[in-house]
Amino acid sequence: MEVVLSPGGVGDQGYNDKILRGFQEAAIKYGFMLAVHVPDEKEQGRQIYEDWLSTTIDDKCERSLFVFSGSEYEYLLEELTLPDDSRQDVLMLETEREYDGIYTFNVGCYAASYLAGATCVLDNEGKEQKALIIAANPHDRQVKRAVDGYRDGYLAAGGTGCDIHYLSEEPDGGYRMQDEAYQFCLENDGEYMYYFSAAGASNKGVYRFSRESYNLAVGMDDNMGFFSSMITMSVVKHMDKVVIDVLGALLENREIPYHQDFTYSSGYEEMVYSEGVTEEWFLDISDIRNRIIEIEQSYEESLQ
Fold first, then answer.
1. What is the C-alpha to C-alpha distance for residues 30 and 252, in angstroms, rounded to an integer?
2. 59 torsion bin: left (phi>0), alpha (psi -120 to 50), beta (else)
3. Same domain for 68 and 119?
4. Are residues 156 and 104 in the same domain?
5. pLDDT lower than 50: segments of the chain
6. What global pTM score does this model have?
7. Can you give the residue range of the structural domain that contains 193?
8. Are 53 and 81 in contact (CB under 8 A)?
9. pLDDT in tens, 97-117
10. Residue range 33-48, pLDDT digits in tens
11. Both 118 and 53 in a single domain?
12. Where on the phi/psi map is residue 30: left (φ > 0), alpha (ψ -120 to 50), or beta?
């Protein structure tokens, strides 16, 4: 199996590291050989794929799988030659589109972000409460889900406002700008009740700000409570688990759809409290929690 990861993504202590961990654990569990590529730029993914396509045709292995680990490589699927050998398969993570002959899946985060937003409203008795969202860019659909979810949940629970700041206007920008994220938060120190970020490795700038300035924040992609005692909860995407499960289905030749959308009911997305934090600290949002699957379904339908 060959995997091409997002350029510069490894080491973010979140999304990309969890994906890598999923492949590593799957390799141990199912006993396959794993080659991982971390290109400097996404266009290098093209050559890595073409090398795999040509070399595995001559290999004597029973099965070979190539994985694009993120939607930044999606444009390549329109241009690349697809395998015509039944021993070769292609998998792409985190895309909503369906492609003939290519396995794809998408893990949502709207519901978990919605629950986080609703939980962050500490007082709905008329006290003005605003939250700040730091987002990578306005083009990434997964970033949009996180931003929309947190904002919608925050306002639904009684928050009085939610401002959004994009680190970049470029489609692939904003993911590795932690200094800029830190500086923007610093310039708005004390202006907001909570700080939420959906910006890849740039999130660490928000976590640093939270730790140094004692402002409340929400973690993203994994439980980020270890970064700061002021991070009370996190939106978690269990990318490692879904990678292991999907690879297991493929390797065991189980019949699965070429495309799968995983939402809150799948268990691959959730909102978790940091260690030592309990729901008793916050307002009761049990009504929202009981309706969250319905809320997410309505949102997903609005995107179609």
1. 9
2. beta
3. no
4. no
5. none
6. 0.93
7. 110-236+269-303
8. yes
9. 898 889 999 999 999 999 999
10. 999 999 988 899 999 9
11. no
12. alpha
